[in-house]
Amino acid sequence: MCHLTSVAGCALTASEVEPIAADLHETVVNVPVIEHRLSGDHDRDIVATTYMPDGPGPFPLIILSHGSPSDPRDRPKVGRYRELPQIRTFVQLGFAVIVPIRRGYGATGGTDEEDAGSCQHPDYMTAGNQASLDVLATLAYAETLPQVDRDYVVLVGQSAGGFASLAAASFAPKGLVAVVNFSGGRGGNPFRHPGMPCDPQQMADTIAHFASTTRVPVLWHYVQNDKFFSPEVVATWFAAFQAAGGQGQMVVEPPFGRNGHGMFSAKDSIPIWLPHFEQFLAPLVSMKQVQAPGSSL
Q1: Residue 7: predicted pLDDT
Q2: Which residues pair with 42 in a beta bridge?
């Protein structure tokens, strides 16, 4: 559920031909993940990319999680998730950023452990728990980096990455202060059933389950003309989130482009969502550690 191009609407991009962003101290790393299988635990690595402000830090951390293409055949083609305008915005605010490529996608490859199954009987709980494994492993890795302040962690994700962030937050990892969910969910398809994802009630139940053990506030950021998840459906998810004890707020932006689901990935959308992002995090993240010259956070 993402934005394969700025026209079609996906949040993964194949950017391997682009040079390393030296101004962001871009570094490709391997993150160890322990897979739990019936045959026992197995070690493997996922590919991630770190981006840092200038200086020694420690900097508050954003773990940025990518979405998923509508067509599963596109998952291996996407390389690394590398939305540089958005990442540069976070770094300029004073955040370290790490971007994992979860199992089954792009540069990491392998089996898609997040497969939710058929549209008639999706298993969103398993999909969320599998995505959490990669997000939490990334957090554990990032905590070993001297530039990272392990007490100030924000999970940010778009589409399936927003859902992954909600799921990971339910494990209440130490140091987590907030979640920012851009158009999060699973089961949407703008071509087969625009606006109405597969079994939205099961998604509401899954989100409620995650919310019941989430200890930090969540910003839900959506767009009116989202062709994956309509505002009416998202409202039921947010209501389930709140009923289960979830704390946070929901913003629904006016229509953006032909499919607002991909708003986060569009460079010209940053001035739209950034004020909400800054306002939401300002009370939660240390002003001293995040404030950068020219920043309003």
Answers
A1: 24
A2: 35
CA 52 to chain centre: 18
Domain ranges for the chain? 22-287
Q: Which residues pair with 99 in a beta bridge?
A: 49
Give the per-residue SS3 of 221-243. EEECCCCCCCHHHHHHHHHHHHH
**Regions of the chain where pLDDT drops below 70:** 1-18, 38, 40, 76-78, 285-297
Neighbours of 226 (CB within 10 A): 29
**Residue pair 259/9 in contact by the 8 Å Cβ criterion:** yes
Please confirm whether the linkage preceding 58 is cis (ω < 30° from 0).
yes
Rounded Cα distance between 293 and 296, Å, is 9
In this structure, which topology does domain 22-287 adopt according to CATH?
Rossmann fold (3.40.50)
For tokens 């289960």, what's the residue? 244
Give the predicted TM-score (pTM) of the model: 0.89
Element (H, E) at 62: strand 59-65
